[in-house]
Structure formats: C-alpha cells, structure tokens
From TrEMBL:
Enzyme category, top tier: oxidoreductase
Name the record gives this protein: Glucose-6-phosphate 1-dehydrogenase
Record key words, sorted: Carbohydrate metabolism, Glucose metabolism, NADP, Oxidoreductase
Ligand binding (substrate): H178, K182, E216, D235, K332
Pfam family, one: G6PD_N
PANTHER family, sorted: GLUCOSE-6-PHOSPHATE 1-DEHYDROGENASE, GLUCOSE-6-PHOSPHATE 1-DEHYDROGENASE G6PD
Residue ranges occupied by any Glucose-6-phosphate dehydrogenase C-terminal domain in the UniProt entry: 189-481
InterPro entries attached to this UniProt entry: G6P_DH (IPR001282), G6P_DH_AS (IPR019796), G6P_DH_C (IPR022675), G6P_DH_NAD-bd (IPR022674), NAD(P)-bd_dom_sf (IPR036291)
Record bears the keyword Oxidoreductase: yes
GO cellular component: cytosol
Length: 485
C-alpha cells in the first residue's frame, strides 16, 4: 500500500537547541525524511539556533553528519541531502541574552507559517517565549512546540502554562508527547472508532483488565542527573502511559477534531481514582556483570530513593470502566524493549467444551515498539484428530508487513508531529488542562511514598522488574503478559 504524501504549506521552522541531542537524532533526520518524501515545499526553511559559535555552513556540516549517521547513508546518495541542507540556516542565540534575536527576526518571512521548536531544557521555555514575543515574531501564524518535561508537579506546570499563555494563545502551543505520533497509537483510535467489532465490547462487561507496559533495556545513561530528580513516575507515567490510558479508555469523541478528542481524554484523567499505597511497586535496577552500573551508581547517589521502575493499579471511575482495573508498568534495564497495551477480555461465560479444554480468553495486543502492530489472540481448535482441544493463536497485523510501501518504514513519530504543527492540527498534542490534570493525579501519589519514606525495591538488570510487581497481579488472580521484544 503506497502512502499518500500531501505537501504542507511553506514554513519557517526555528529549532532552538538545534545542535542538541534531540535535534540531531530525531528532529532533523525526521525533517530530512519528510523532505525525501516530497512533503516539504521548495520554500520551506529550517533555522537552527543555539549558543555555539557556528556559521550556517558549519551547521549544515553538523546536520549532514547527523542525518548520515541516523539514516545509515541510505537516503543520501543522489544529492537529496544537499537539497535538504540548502534549506538550513543557523543563528547564534542565547535564550537568556539579547544577541542574535534581531538576526533571527530578520530571517522570518511574513505571511508564512512559523514554528518555534523548543528543543532545550525546560528552564528556558519562558525566556524563549518572551523573546519571540518581544522581537515581534509571535504573529498569528506563529506556533511553539514544547518538549517534555512539562513541569515537575502541578504547581510548576501551572506556572509554565501561565508563562506561555502570556505570549501565545493555547491554539498556538503544541506540547509534544512523541508517543501520540506513533502509527499504532493513532491506529488505536482507528480500530476503536472505525470498526463496529470492538466498541460494543470495550467496557467492564467484557474487558477483564488492561495492561500498559513500557519497558526499556537501557539505563539512565547520560541523563542520570535529570532522571534522579524525576523518576519513572514523572518521566514516563505522568505523560506517555497516561496518554495511552486516555486513548484506550476515552469515550468516542463526536468528531476527530483537536478539542473534541482532548475533551474526552481530559474526562478520563479526571475520572482516575487515587492510587492506594499497596497498589504501587517501585524499583531500582542493580548492576549487571560488573559491566553496567546499577541505578544508584549511575546517578552518583548511593542513597537515592528515585524509582527506575514503577508498576501500579488504578481505576477509571465511570460507567464504562467501573470494576475494570488498569495496570501500568514501566522501567529501565528490563529484559526487552517493548511498549505494548494488552486489552484482556473476560473468559467466555460458559465453556461447552468442558474443563479439560482449559480457560481461554481473547487478548488484543497493541504494540507500539518495536515492530508496531496489532495482534488479536483468538481461541481455535487445535488441528488434528483426538478430540476437541483448544489452542490460542494470534491474528497478527504487523504494520511494516501490512502497510509499508514497498518495505519502507512508516514515518517516525517526530516527523508526523512536526508536519502536524505546520498544518496547525493539535489533535495529537496535549492541551494545558490535560497536563495539569495529569499532575493533579500524580502529585499525591508521589507525596504519599515520600511521606512514608519508602525505598524502591532492587531488581536485577535484564529481569521483568521487582518480584512485588508480580504479587500485585497475583493478589488479583492475574498475571502480567511477558515482556517480549
Ligand atoms: P541537549 O543535547 O543538552 O541539547 C540542548 C540544546 O540547547 C543544545 O543545542 C544547546 O546548545 C542548547 N542550549 C542550551 N542552553 C541554551 C541557551 N541558553 N540558549 C540557547 N540554546 C541553548 O538536550 P536534548 O537531549 O537535545 O534535549 C532538549 C529538550 O528535549 C529537553 O527539554 C529534553 O528534556 C527534551 N527531550 C529530549 C529527548 C532526547 O531523546 N534527547 C527526548 C525527549 C525530550 P548550546 O550549548 O550550543 O547553546
């Protein structure tokens, strides 16, 4: 199936932090792929901005290197990279200073969409918003893209929202959560609201429980200093897992329109029950083989109480989901890299095949990474003679196989989201009130374990996390699905 590429309007895109890790690994290689796909019009221009003393020529060389590294040289052969680089400029700017801003303003073309990507630490968001405004660049066609973390708690998120709101309307603020740009996440909405098959079953009458797992094999790496101030709850649950939960649990919006979708997501967050202390398990990974340091060593604090793993059980208190638990878990240095949502349906109410046929239930697995796709586990007769034995088999749709145009990878989440910014479509971006509601749910949970002085449980690197997370399920006569790559 060949994907349809609809070119966007011409634009000026400024990447603050254009020399940083995110810009070099994700944003710029993603833009290059959109360029190769023919989505970027001739007049589009990208401006990198940071404090480093670089000329535009130096910057193009830096970007060329990053793009080659990420794309493995594949797409750079026939001169396309040169065409892309010709669209790049660089301006030396300090977010907190005054130099460079007039140069940047002079580059902006009137009557053209202009997007400002804040790919810098969150401490600079307010400075950037203020200076963009001050230097006359906050036109009606301007929009800003804000990276996570969006606040550290409810108070700081409110403050940040207020700072940005002083210079931009909510309709101009794009709070990015790259999980929402993933093909499968959007497909989740297509599956739920584009088919008759699932929606009638999508409630507590038919769904036993839901598991959301985001497992990583990497440790904190070079982010140790930041990560130790955040932990898995703030770094992953408050944003990525919460967004996935919303899309699974929300009511059908009246239309696929930014505010209609986000209104429904907000209702889910507001319906989340507080989490009981005994429904939370926190962990910290241990060193492995003398080769990989343990969490405390990695963050350079032998007494750190920050969690690199969390599992919890919560409920969405509304008519649809009353009585259906949602189990969330995420952690670092686990056995495999895997992000998956499992919708676990109830057993059939009565087995006509007798006890020896065993218990069987349908499972809808939505895989976000790696290997994006959807699998429906169905029960069939085991082939062959010898009576009626039942077996569970997967009905599998791997997107790379089913949809990839001639084996090409689908667009990366960042590519899709940046193009949505240019188009002015906020459906896949978090609204300010959503972020605040997510913090309002998260803050008391964190305050709870802090006041109880809880220490995270150690777990082996390469495992599925602390044993207590299995007990959390076992107490409810359930079990986690395996973490598979
Ligand atoms: P990074 O590698 O440290 O890059 C930071 C960038 O900001 C550099 O280009 C730096 O360049 C520039 N910068 C720093 N201070 C500045 C100032 N005062 N004025 C102007 N530019 C300044 O950070 P990153 O990993 O790219 O992360 C950027 C943002 O994305 C952060 O908010 C991070 O939390 C978020 N994020 C990153 C990732 C990721 O995978 N890296 C994933 C999700 C979210 P100069 O030093 O030359 O100024």
């Amino acid at each position: 199936m060949v994907s349809r590429v609809i070119p966007v309007d011409p634009f000026d895109l400024v990447i603050f932090g254009g020399t940083g890790d995110l810009a070099r690994r994700k944003i710029l290689p993603g833009l290059f792929r959109r360029y190769c796909a023919g989505q970027m019009p001739e007049e589009a221009r990208i401006v990198g901005a940071a404090r480093s003393a670089l000329s535009s020529e130096d910057y193009r060389a830096l970007v060329a290197e990053s793009v080659r590294e990420v794309s493995g040289g594949r797409a750079c052969e026939d001169g396309t990279l040169d065409g892309f680089l010709a669209r790049l400029d660089y301006v030396r700017i300090d977010a907190r200073g005054s130099d460079g801003w007039e140069d940047l303003a002079a580059l902006m073309r009137p009557e053209m969409v202009r997007a400002f990507y804040f790919s810098v630490g969150p401490g600079l968001f307010g400075d950037l918003a203020e200076r963009i405004h001050l230097h006359g660049m906050a036109s009606e066609l301007a929009r800003i893209v804000v990276e996570k973390p969006f606040g550290h708690d409810l108070a700081s998120a409110r403050e940040l929202n207020a700072t940005l709101a002083a210079h931009f309307d909510e309709g101009q603020i794009y709070r990015i959560d790259h999980y929402l740009g993933k093909e499968t996440v959007q497909n989740l909405m297509a599956i739920r609201f584009g088919n008759m098959l699932f929606e009638p079953l999508w409630n507590s009458q038919y769904v036993d429980h839901i598991q959301i797992t985001v497992a990583e094999t990497v440790g904190v790496g070079g982010r140790g200093e930041y990560y130790d101030t955040a932990g898995a709850m703030r770094d992953m649950v408050q944003n990525h897992l919460m967004q996935l939960l919303c899309l699974i649990a929300m009511e059908p919006p009246a239309k696929f329109d930014p505010d209609a979708v986000r209104d429904e997501k907000l209702k889910v967050i507001r319906a989340l029950d507080p989490v009981e202390p005994h429904h939370i398990v926190r962990g910290q990974y241990l060193a492995q083989d003398g080769e990989h340091p343990g969490y405390r060593e990695a963050v350079n604090d032998p007494r750190s109480r920050t969690e690199s793993y969390i599992a919890l059980k919560t409920h969405v208190s509304n008519w649809r989901w009353a009585g259906t638990p949602f189990y969330l878990r995420t952690g670092k240095r686990l056995v495999a890299r895997s992000s998956v949502i499992n919708v676990m349906f109830k057993d059939a109410p009565h087995s006509i095949f007798g006890q020896e046929a065993g218990r069987h239930a349908n499972v809808l697995s939505i895989r976000l990474q790696p290997n994006e796709g959807i699998t429906l586990q169905v029960t069939i007769k085991e082939p062959g003679p010898g009576g009626m034995r039942l077996v569970d088999v997967p009905l599998d749709m791997t997107f790379a196989e089913a949809l990839g145009p001639d084996g090409e990878d689908p667009p990366d989440a960042y590519e899709r989201l940046i193009m949505d910014v240019i188009r002015g479509n906020q459906t896949l971006f978090m609204r300010g009130d959503e972020v605040e509601a997510a913090w309002a749910w998260t803050d008391p949970i964190i305050a709870g374990w802090q006041s109880r002085g809880e220490v995270p449980k150690p777990y082996d690197s390469g495992s599925t996390g602390p044993g207590d997370a299995d007990l959390l399920m076992k107490r409810d006569h359930r079990a986690w699905r395996g973490i598979k790559p």
